[in-house]
Amino acid sequence: MNIHAYYPIDVVNGPGTRCTLFVSGCEHRCRGCYNPRTWRLDSGQPFTLALEEQLIADLNDTRVPRRGLSISGGDPLHPDNVPHVRRLLHRVRRCCPGKDIWLWTGYQWETLSEAQQTVVALVDVLIDGPFIRAEYDPQLRWRGSKNQRILKTAELGQRKDSFTTIPAAS
């Protein structure tokens, strides 16, 4: 898996102070996308074990407490990214107890493959749906267009019937 950016301290992509990872690869190619340079799977740089170790260390750093991990892109649920993202999220769950995980995808929850659902089962909040320029609203929190949903799991590992939409003002 390739990545475009890793921010060890981020206060924009989700609530609180977080670590944020932007992966490479996106099939959606949304018109007006703010990150088109992330579309190609081979763009960016490899996500190395050293960077993974740094991310885990940053999440556990008590000098700058992080609430959790945000993962975006590109698209973390691109079929080529799924096994790598799943492995990373399993490790975050194991090594960073109490940290929440937010994930942005251009896919809609109802259309996810079984493999993609195994990744979503590891997240606390899923922001789904493609960016649609005609529905762009700069007042939206944590998403770019009105069609995108902020979905929260009732408990980790539960399926789509346990998702609830977080109110837009949150």
Give a nutshell description of this structure.
This protein is of the alpha/beta class. The chain is built from three helices and eight strands; from the N terminus they run βββαβαβαβββ.
Instruction: Please tell me how large the radius of gyration is.
Output: 15 Å
Low-confidence stretches: 155-160
- Main sheet specs: 8 strands, mixed
Strand arrangement in the largest pleated sheet: 3-1-2-4-5-6-7-8
Number of helical stretches of at least 4 residues: 3
Head-to-tail CA distance between termini: 32 Å
- Following the backbone from N to C, one meets helices and strands in this order, namely EEEHEHEHEEE
**Total E-strand runs:** 8
What structural class do helix, strand and pairing data support?
alpha/beta
Large-scale geometry: globular
Mean pLDDT: 90
Range of strand content:
15-25%
Overall helicity: 10-25%
Tell me what you see in this structure.
- This protein is α/β, with parallel strands linked by helices and 170 residues long.
- Helix content is 19%, strand content 24%.
- It is globular, with a radius of gyration of 15 Å.
List the helices and strands and how they pair.
Blueprint (H helix, E strand, L loop, with lengths): L1 E9 L7 E6 L21 E2 L2 H12 L7 E6 L8 H14 L4 E5 L9 H7 L4 E4 L20 E5 L9 E3 L5
Parallel strand pairs: 2-4, 4-5, 5-6
Antiparallel strand pairs: 1-2, 1-3, 6-7, 7-8
Helix pairs in contact: 2-3
